[in-house]
Structures are given as C-alpha cells and as structure tokens.
Amino acid sequence: MKVKCTIVRGGTSKGVLIHRDELPSDPKTRDETILAIFGSPDRRQIDGLGGSDVLTSKLAIVGAPTRDDADIDYTFGQVGIETPYVDYGGYCGNILSAVASYAVDEKFVSVDRTSAKVRVHVTNTGRIVVAEVPVANGRAAEEGAARIFGVPGSGAPIVLNFADTVGSITGKVFPTGRARDRVSVPSVGEIEVSIVDCGNPMIFARLESFRVSVDESADALDARRDLISALEEMRARLAREFDITMPDGSVSEHIPIVALVAPPRDYRSYGSNELITKESCDLVSREFFCGRVHKAYGVGETVCTSFAALLPETIVNSAAGSPCQQNRRIRIGHPSGVIDSEVSLKQVGGSVGADAILVVRTARRIMDGVVHVREGIESASRG
Fold it and tell me: What is the mean pLDDT of residues 58-82?
C-alpha cells in the first residue's frame, strides 16, 4: 500500500502531513495504517517515519474545509511510539503553522500579495485558528529573520491567532468554576492547582509542590519516574472529574496537559547550555506531555499559559507577578529557551475572552513523497 505524504517542520515539532483522501475511511483501519506509517509500536520507530520522540511523532490530516468560515480542515494526531495509539484529544499549534503554510502552497487559499490569511479549522476542537502566512513568488515563504528557541537558524514569521480557542474543550475558562483548587496527590500531599481551558486545556501547579527545580534538565526530570507517575495520576483523575475527556468518555493520552510553573529564575537551556536569565521571561514552566518532559513548549500550551497569566488568582498569574493589564506580552521560560504570546483580553457576558492571542512560529516543508506501508493492513475504501 502506498500513501502520498509530506514531512513538515512546524515550530519545534516535526510531523507527517497526509491528505484525508489518502487514508482509509474506516477509523480502525485508518489508525492501523497511520501506526504502520510511523513504525509504531517501537521505541526507535525504525521501520517508519516516526522520529522516536513525542515532538517528532506527530500527524496532520488535512483536507478541504467542512465549514464555510474555514480554508482548510486540520486534524491532529499524536502517534504513540512504544504504545500503539493515535490520540486525537487535542492539537499541536506548532504543526498548525506548517498546515497553514501547506494551505498556501496547495492553493487552499488565493494568493495575490506578500501575505495570505489562512483560516484553519481544527477539527479536534471545532475551533478556527487564523494564520498570517508570508508569501514569496506565490508560495509560502520559508526564509526570514524570525528565530525560535529549539530550532536552528531562522525562518519567515507565521503569526497565529488563537482568540477563538478560549474554552475550546469544556466551553469554560475554568472547568472547575474556580481559579484555584486544592487536590490531594499520592506521595506528594495536598497541593493547589489551576485548571484553565484555552488553546489546549492545562492543569497548572507549582514547581515546588513536586520538589522540582528549574536547574534540573529535561533528561533528569524524565528519569524521575515517580514524578511522572504522580503527575499522570493527577492528570487522569482531574480529567475524568471535570469531563476533559474524549467523546467516548476516555482520558486522552496528553489532554489536559500538566505544567509546573514558578517565578522567573536563571537556568541553562537544554541542548545548547545557553544561560536563560530571569530578566528574559515573566515566568518559567515545565510541561509534561505524553509521560515525558516537553523539551521546549507547545503552542497550544503557550496560548493557555499566557492567557492564564492574565487571569487573577491563578497559579500562573502569581508566578508571573500578578500582571493586571488587559493587553500583555507574556514570556515563558521553557527547557530550551523562551516562547512568548501577545494577549488581548475582552469581556464576553460575565466571563473573560480574548480579542487576540498571537504566537509567532516558522515552518518548513521538508519532503514530499510516497510512504510504503507494510503489508498486513486490511484493505478498506478510501475517503
């Protein structure tokens, strides 16, 4: 079986992009095909296109829009590495930037000037993210001066607006109805958390609540399996309690995402050992994603963290020094450096919303081709 695909880098993630017409229509056969394409389950994904890391085992299924107010449909799948699953519970904002760039190249939108607006329908959440994609010679520009921590070199800046993603899963800013809650965590005790639904819904706690230091490397934190287990137990329990679940009631492998935050401090970045100073960020955060520490920071998580930083009484707000402005650039220190977002709040009835939540990414189309899927996948009609 042959499947046309494109390998893309979006922000600090890399994934495989496939048009939905290339995949079987039966969900079970589709996911079996995807796992075979990635070479899962296998720690090295040696027999497929996966990159043996949660940041490089990502899927984008694209197609013509199924909404009149969109230009392209995007379904994100997090592909398991050692465990055979394809998780559609949330989405990747980094890969979304590559989808927007692809939409320009493949004429999902008309291009007649130096930039194109792409309205991406994220089918995982039913929300629209608007991307401003720079254009050169009728195609998405890739060369430029924008730099991202965790990505070598520079690229053309793609501006993503996530204003429509407030309450994207639960319909509420605070799924519990409160800015803070006290929960009991085995082996840790009673701690405070903030659960916020924007971008990708997240559970925030303090670094010190889990005896974590910003000086611990991502590899050192990954090795603390007791920590990973405690966070995963808390994540799954709170997801069930507050209905942050899949349509069938099961808990996603990665949504909601857990992040541990603290006021800004100096530390050395993962990989480059560059000094990240406390003056360069408003808070520091360590994101735990699919049972591991994110080596950088997700875009959907940047959206949620930046939004939460402006919400009074949240743990993130306290870590950021309780900023009270309605319009603010929030800088988040992560293992590989700093990521920021421009947030503009508004009131929607009796709740808070957003006029804009802007994140800048770069993207690059790496390869177009055909992947040969191992035999054994049942044949099924396509479309």
Answer: 98
Number of other residues whose CB lies within 10 A of the CB of residue 103 = 24
* CB-based contacts of 332, cutoff 8 Å, min separation 6: 281, 282, 283, 284, 285, 297, 302, 305, 306, 338, 339, 340, 341
Three-state DSSP at 59 gives: strand
Are 119 and 69 a contacting pair, CB within 8 Å?
Answer: yes
* Full 3-state SS string of 88-136: CCCCCHHHHHHHHHHHHHCCCCCCCCCEEEEEEEECCCCEEEEEEEEEE
What is the model's pLDDT at position 325? 74
62: closest CA among 9, 132, 5?
5
What DSSP element (H or E) covers 364? Answer: strand 363-372
**Strand partners of residue 146:** 155
Percent of the chain whose pLDDT exceeds 70: 98
Tell me how far apart the alpha carbons of residues 51 and 53 are, in angstroms, rounded to a whole number. 6
Q: Are 145 and 132 in contact (CB under 8 A)?
A: no
Q: From CA 343, how far away is CA 306, in angstroms rounded?
A: 7
H or E stretch including 66?
A: none
Q: What is the 3-state secondary structure (H, E, C) of 76-92?
A: EEEECCCCCCEECCCCC
How far is Cα 56 from Cα 14, in angstroms, rounded to an integer?
Answer: 5
pLDDT, one tens digit per residue, over 305-342 is 999 999 999 999 999 998 867 789 999 999 999 999 99
Is the pTM of the predicted complex or chain greater than 0.85? yes
Q: For residue 27, what is the enclosing H or E element? A: helix 27-38
Dist. CA 355–CA 334, nearest whole Å = 26
pLDDT digits (tens, 9 = 90+) for 96-130: 999 999 999 999 999 988 999 999 999 999 999 99
| pLDDT beyond 90 at 167 | yes
Domains defined along the chain, listed by start: 2-157+364-372 (3.10.310.10), 181-360 (3.10.310.10)
- Asked if residues 203 and 259 have their Cβ atoms less than 8 Å apart, the reply is yes
